[in-house]
Specification:
monosaccharide binding; SIS_PGI_2; single chain; globular; 458 residues; glycolysis; Rossmann fold; 16 helices; binds 6-O-phosphono-alpha-D-glucopyranose
Length: 458
């Protein structure tokens, strides 16, 4: 079991230099100390999750009690309360899990994540479900997010109508133990509720019951997820960059951005199961690092999700010849051997003949290496994270690597990586538009905005 980062191609003319790297080792030590000081103060609960046996037990107990009762598990959540479960499902239960028969799923339920309030999507899911055999997992750290609460109200009314007093058997909440509206509802009504520790923010919560409960319900080994994360935590314990993968990732991305104008950071796995993992990373990196510094300057790299080889035929042209403002991080999975060699047919057709005898895994790998090399040749910095396999252990390790890297990057950018004040104004305006009590100030601000000008519409 191993995870490594090859960052040779970050050191290119116009990108990171040896001098940067030497200077930055001291800068990283300060960032590491700042992060560890916050860990010691108990601010950064995500760091403790790999060892939190009591929290894991909340999930395993619930899953044991559930037995094989559920045919469908439906998550209601958004942002950090949805992207993690989606990433885990795609990574560890790939190949269209929800289309498999119950036998093919080993008796485990389907898993659907409603991460939006598009009425047609919710209508379609509701009309497919057999409510008697459906469990709804309502996930919200704050316990009050408008989209999730609206979903809950719709589901709750349907459950009440169908099951009356027994509706609550079809519900479990995952929320803060003390804050928000969900917890008091759970307590009052006797609905099962699992904890998101108060010191773990939404986008850092995938290793709490937010991600672990849905994963365990569909048979993913939650203990292995946490074991992989714990291993990465151990590797990142020291402030020596040479042994610290999260520090190395953070420092290189920050140097490339801050010193060399590489303001866009692409994550490009060469493995279909990691497609949604890139979307999870986008929220983590964007919401954590896109901030206003105390001195009023705006900072933050723009994360971009891509998939190899698919995006070689879509975005790579931009990465090669567009503005030289990007880093690309490939994720490679070693030893993809399924299917065996490509059949040797059409010996007389050059476009086909050379492929015969190689495996698809070899082709995928050759294309990644070729793309990395081509980008390096054009002075476009890139690095490659190699996983031995896409399994719970390696996914847990990769999650922890990127979460801790985000914390380090926050210190390097000199911002707070753990808040998201920029999303507030839009929420306040939504409350004002919908007439939520207490939103008068937002209403007044909203009313001052220019109204749509009919001359400016085509
Ligand atoms: O889990 P919740 O409290 O419902 O939050 C869901 C999402 O809402 C907000 O918009 C935050 O910006 C996200 O970071 C968060 O993940």
């Amino acid at each position: 079991m191993a995870l490594s980062i090859d960052y040779t191609n970050m050191f290119l003319p116009g990108a990171v230099t040896d001098a940067d790297w030497e200077f930055a080792a001291g800068r990283f030590r300060a960032a590491h100390a700042a992060v560890m000081a916050r860990v010691a103060r108990g601010d950064l609960g995500f760091v403790d999750l790999p060892e939190d046996a009591a929290l894991l037990r909340q999930t395993t107990d619930f899953v044991q009690r559930a037995g094989d009762r559920w045919e469908d598990v439906v998550i209601l959540g958004i942002g950090g309360s949805a992207l993690g479960p989606i990433a885990l499902r795609t990574a560890l239960r790939p190949h269209a899990w929800n289309t498999l028969s119950r036998e093919e799923r080993g008796g485990k339920p389907r898993l659907t994540v409603l991460d939006n309030v598009d009425p047609e999507t919710i209508d379609a899911v509701m009309s497919r479900l057999h409510l008697e055999r459906a469990l709804f997992v309502v996930i919200s750290k704050s316990g009050g997010t408008a989209e999730t609460m609206a979903q809950y109200l719709i589901i709750r009314a349907a459950l009440d109508e169908r099951f009356g007093d027994r509706a609550k058997e079809h519900l479990v909440f995952v929320t803060d133990p003390a804050k928000g509206s969900l917890r008091p509802i759970a307590t009052k009504e006797g609905i099962a509720a699992l904890d998101i520790p108060p010191n773990v923010g939404g986008r850092f919560s995938v290793l709490t019951p937010v991600g672990v409960l849905p994963a365990a319900l569909i048979g993913i080994d939650a203990g292995q997820l946490l074991a992989g994360a714990a291993d990465m935590r151990r590797r990142c314990a020291g402030d020596d960059l040479a042994g610290n993968p999260a520090g190395t990732f953070a420092l290189l991305q920050w140097l490339a951005d801050d010193r060399h104008g590489k303001h866009n950071h692409v994550l490009m796995p060469y493995a279909d199961p990691l497609r949604d993992f890139a979307a999870w990373f986008v929220q983590l990196w964007a919401e954590s690092l896109g901030k206003v510094r105390k001195d009023g300057t705006h900072v933050g790299p723009t994360p971009i999700a891509a998939l190899g080889t698919t995006d070689q035929h879509a975005q790579v042209q931009l990465f090669m010849e567009g503005p030289a403002d990007k880093t690309i991080t490939f994720v490679e999975v070693a030893g993809r051997t399924a299917l065996g060699p490509i059949p040797k047919l059409y010996a007389d057709v050059p476009d086909l003949a050379y492929l015969g005898g190689h495996s698809l895994g070899e082709l995928l790998d050759a294309e990644r290496r070729a793309t990395a090399g081509a980008l390096a040749r054009r002075g476009r910095p890139n690095m490659t994270i190699t996983l031995d396999a896409v399994d719970a252990w390696h996914v847990g390790a990769l999650i922890f690597l990127l979460e801790l890297a985000t914390a380090y990057a926050g210190a390097l950018y000199d911002i707070d990586a753990f808040d998201q004040p920029g999303v507030e104004l839009g929420k306040q305006f939504t409350y004002a538009i919908l007439g939520r009590p207490g939103s008068d100030a937002a209403r007044a601000e909203w009313d001052q905005l220019p109204k749509p000008d009919p001359r400016r519409r085509v």
